[in-house]
């Protein structure tokens, strides 16, 4: 099932504009993540697609059919809620069978369908357990099986793993992703966790204040953010507000060529993994002092200070980070950066093999780290 949203808005009775004039298209068979901060509009958008909220204006099309005026039960949608929404007095079998009984399916079909779903969600043998006899992960799998029981053409998941611990959440992400691909069902997954969105989605829609900031693949959203918000929300960044002077960003030692007129205000964004550290040398363009190192398992986070008290963070391999200490002198090279003018990304001229220009060294010659 493909999805098209045209100029959709939702204004609540108190005047709050939860969604503002949003349009996008989602492809059939894909897993799409709605990503954004709390209050960004992603859950309201999901509920409008499901028919649980009525749009103030705009249109929703599912496989080319307009549905924004239809009740939820006529949209062929399965919905998985954050809080599971299981019936506490019903066992696992009856929870999964609930929608089928509403559809008045015969007993033989219900037994066969529920049995198939129990196998798919790895809950075989737990049919007679009540929800309070299950773990959080098991309850979420029951909720997913119940949503799939009526064979919906679209599956909507509203932060389904928010109440589950980190390790189990990671396992369930992989499991849901594999199940979705196996079944080929079009799915939308709401989350405020950027890592979750990057791992689970074919494409990501980034929301902010009721509007779409960007729609693209995980690689596009991460590597080519269209706004400063997307750059900072999807991954970590070093962010600097500066101007253009003599064809360069006016950031002291962090001086990058840019194709824009002097005096123009720009935002420079550098991801920590694009800052590489090398041994200190008077010949290196950018020299720095280590302020702090933090071990984060797969890498070290290194906070550094440059000239004019400019600070920058780098992510370096464990083999390099373990030898760094506060007040060590190092040099650094910038592999990549992005510049933005207001809300949009600018074209920049940058050869990643070149080093940023430095006007003067801030440290005297010393030992290399």
Automatic annotation (TrEMBL):
<dbReference type="InterPro" id="IPR013611">
    <property type="entry name" value="Transp-assoc_OB_typ2"/>
</dbReference>
<dbReference type="Pfam" id="PF08402">
    <property type="entry name" value="TOBE_2"/>
</dbReference>
<dbReference type="GO" id="GO:0043190">
    <property type="term" value="C:ATP-binding cassette (ABC) transporter complex"/>
</dbReference>
<protein>
    <recommendedName>
        <fullName>ABC-type quaternary amine transporter</fullName>
        <ecNumber>7.6.2.9</ecNumber>
    </recommendedName>
</protein>
<dbReference type="GO" id="GO:0005524">
    <property type="term" value="F:ATP binding"/>
</dbReference>
<dbReference type="GO" id="GO:0016887">
    <property type="term" value="F:ATP hydrolysis activity"/>
</dbReference>
<dbReference type="Pfam" id="PF00005">
    <property type="entry name" value="ABC_tran"/>
</dbReference>
<keyword id="KW-0067">ATP-binding</keyword>
<dbReference type="InterPro" id="IPR027417">
    <property type="entry name" value="P-loop_NTPase"/>
</dbReference>
<dbReference type="InterPro" id="IPR008995">
    <property type="entry name" value="Mo/tungstate-bd_C_term_dom"/>
</dbReference>
<keyword id="KW-0813">Transport</keyword>
<dbReference type="InterPro" id="IPR003593">
    <property type="entry name" value="AAA+_ATPase"/>
</dbReference>
<dbReference type="GO" id="GO:0015418">
    <property type="term" value="F:ABC-type quaternary ammonium compound transporting activity"/>
</dbReference>
<keyword id="KW-0547">Nucleotide-binding</keyword>
<feature type="domain" description="ABC transporter">
    <location>
        <begin position="3"/>
        <end position="234"/>
    </location>
</feature>
<dbReference type="InterPro" id="IPR017871">
    <property type="entry name" value="ABC_transporter-like_CS"/>
</dbReference>
<dbReference type="InterPro" id="IPR003439">
    <property type="entry name" value="ABC_transporter-like_ATP-bd"/>
</dbReference>
<dbReference type="InterPro" id="IPR050093">
    <property type="entry name" value="ABC_SmlMolc_Importer"/>
</dbReference>
